[in-house]
């Protein structure tokens, strides 16, 4: 990247949400302040890397279907989590899926265009003063540069007790046709098949999407690759500080039950969710902090 590469960051609105647009040369990312949710990432004139539903609703209080929702301080159904995650929560069975962070207003801490380098945005979610999540705070650093998109989720336990949480950067990826895609890097990994009674299985070969997939992988590899022959590209999802990943595609029937989701949209998306879930849940000692990083880029084959 040269000093002349255009880099900027601007506050703007999409629908009813306050957002930030990060721009580095011909690459752009969008982030909503609500939920610190990345809403888009891609290069001019190419298919997006990050998928956003054409039925997405950009309104306060609603998690947007697509982008990278931040699931925190729990992932999925709270009651399905290890007991330590919902200890002290009075009505875990009725807690909202994927935690409260994705629909809350996060505070902007920093927004900078670093000449010749990157556009960076930092958003923070203050700790609750009381209640079951008292003392737990989060921060999300988003950085766009010539290498791609980097998203880092910091969790901090400011309480006087050890705390266990679960979390995910729930990345929706754009693909040509999910039936022609394979995910590499999961070979031989243990996984929980949530569609088959949460039994543990082992992945054989690359992952294909022949039907609904909703699995929690214990990832030995920090680097997963979406090999997309339809779009002639590979998407690389690299993680740090994460030992699990959720792989999801709703296929035909579940697509009909999802909010903000067109009936055929399952064909053009899949989720790779960089996570700390189930056996890999995150234990934070009093005063401790943790960083989980996702790096995402497109590798174009000619
Ligand atoms: O509809 P949402 O609450 O956004 O959840 C969307 C999906 O998230 C994860 O991938 C879960 O593993 C799925 O079971 C769930 O359907």
Please specify the SSE layout and strand pairing:
Layout: E1 7-14, E2 17-24, E3 27-32, E4 37-43, E5 70-71, H1 83-86, E6 107-114, E7 118-125, E8 136-145, E9 148-157, E10 163-165, E11 167-174, E12 181-184, E13 190-193, E14 199-202, E15 207-208, E16 213-218, E17 223-228, E18 233-240, E19 244-249, H2 251-257, E20 269-276, E21 282-284, E22 289-300
Antiparallel strand pairs: 1-2, 2-3, 3-4, 5-11, 6-7, 7-8, 8-9, 9-22, 10-21, 11-20, 12-15, 12-17, 13-14, 13-16, 16-19, 17-18, 18-22, 19-20
Bound molecules: 6-O-phosphono-alpha-D-glucopyranose.
6-O-phosphono-alpha-D-glucopyranose binds at residues 76, 97-98, 214, 246, 248, 258, 271, 273.
Structure description:
The protein has 302 residues and is mainly β. The protein has one domain (7-300): Beta-galactosidase, Chain A, domain 5, CATH 2.70.98.10. The protein is built from two helices and 22 strands. It has helices at 83-86, 251-257; strands at residues 7-14, 17-24, 27-32, 37-43, 70-71, 107-114, 118-125, 136-145, 148-157, 163-165, 167-174, 181-184, 190-193, 199-202, 207-208, 213-218, 223-228, 233-240, 244-249, 269-276, 282-284, 289-300. It has a nine-stranded antiparallel sheet with strand order 6-7-8-9-22-18-17-12-15, with no helix packed on it. Strand 6 (107-114) and strand 7 form a beta hairpin. The longest helix has 7 residues, at 251-257. It is globular. The two termini are 22 Å apart. Bound molecules: 6-O-phosphono-alpha-D-glucopyranose. The site of 6-O-phosphono-alpha-D-glucopyranose has 9 residues, from strand 19 and strand 20. 6-O-phosphono-alpha-D-glucopyranose (G6P) binds at residues 76, 97-98, 214, 246, 248, 258, 271, 273. One of its GO terms (molecular function) is glucose-6-phosphate 1-epimerase activity. Its EC number is 5.1.3.15. It catalyses: alpha-D-glucose 6-phosphate = beta-D-glucose 6-phosphate. One of its GO terms (biological process) is carbohydrate metabolic process. The active site is at 170, 273.
